Amino acid sequence: MQSMSAVTARVRVEPIVDPDSAAASQVRALRVSPEQYRYIGDPAFNLSDTLRDPKSEALAVLADGIVVGFYRLDFAPNAVVGRSLGAPSVGLRAFLIDHRHQGRGYGTGAMTACCDDLRRRHADRALLVLTVNCINAPAIAAYRKAGFIDTGELFRGGSAGPQHMMLHSLHPHPTP
Ligand SMILES: CC(C)(COP(=O)(O)OP(=O)(O)OC[C@H]1O[C@@H](n2cnc3c(N)ncnc32)[C@H](O)[C@@H]1OP(=O)(O)O)[C@@H](O)C(=O)NCCC(=O)NCCS
């Protein structure tokens, strides 16, 4: 696996609004390894489900202009964790980097770009929240490297086992 320091590609994120766009069909072609589908489900379904939901946004992750990943932003009140976090939040769901592009720092880079994009386009949101399966070590590593904090709170009952709740501050200068 290539280390993060070897990455030279520029990672950026781009909203998808048109299901017939080139970016949308590239997202539908994304794949993860067989054991990873339990964490995210089917990318094509996730894209169409996101585009159907007026409270969600679909985002493509691009590395040097090529679509390598996808995520969903869920702006519904209480999204992802089912309760208020005491500050306006947005939920991250269905995040993936195509298996042919994993391990190159794109996951970490995508989360940094995601936070920058939220600060620019949704400055009213103070927190980005997600849940991640406790056994999903690469995802937890990528989220930590991108600055997410593990709240210590566990969610049980998911089909792939218990999940950590993680948060990222979207304030321009987070307090240490
Ligand atoms: C999670 C995911 C998006 C990370 O993307 P990525 O591009 O591979 O992430 P990065 O390259 O930025 O790697 C992040 C860290 O995880 C580490 N890592 C990779 N595989 C690992 C493993 N099996 N165990 C532990 N750490 C691992 C990497 O080494 C890297 O740390 P490093 O830079 O210090 O070496 C990607 O693995 C993926 O799409 N997984 C399937 C879907 C999924 O689980 N989504 C998350 C749902 S919450």
Description:
By secondary structure, this protein is α+β, with helices and mostly antiparallel strands. It has one domain (4-169): 3-Layer(aba) Sandwich (Aminopeptidase). The chain is 26% helix and 30% strand. The chain has helices at residues 22-28, 37-40, 43-52, 106-121, 137-145; strands at residues 11-16, 56-63, 66-74, 89-97, 127-133, 149-155, 163-169. It has a 7-stranded mixed sheet. The protein is globular, with a radius of gyration of 15 Å. Coenzyme A (COA) is lined by residues 3-4, 32, 36, 39-40, 95-97, 102-108, 132, 136-139, 141-142, 145. Coenzyme A is lined by residues 3-4, 32, 36, 39-40, 95-97, 102-108, 132, 136-139, 141-142, 145.
List the helices and strands and how they pair.
Elements: E1 11-16, H1 22-28, H2 37-40, H3 43-52, E2 56-63, E3 66-74, E4 89-97, H4 106-121, E5 127-133, H5 137-145, E6 149-155, E7 163-169
Parallel strand pairs: 4-5
Antiparallel strand pairs: 1-2, 2-3, 3-4, 5-7, 6-7
The structure holds coenzyme A.
CATH class type: Alpha Beta
Computed CA radius of gyration, to the nearest angstrom: 15 Å
Number of strands: 7
Helix content: 25-40%
Gap between N and C termini, in Å?
32 Å
> How is the main sheet built?
7 strands, mixed
Strand content is: 25-35%
Quaternary structure classification:
single chain
Q: What is the number of helical segments per DSSP (H or I, 4+ residues)?
A: 5
Strand order of the largest sheet: 1-2-3-4-5-7-6
Average of the residue pLDDT scores:
92
Could you name the key traits of this structure?
globular, alpha+beta, disordered N terminus, 176 residues, Aminopeptidase
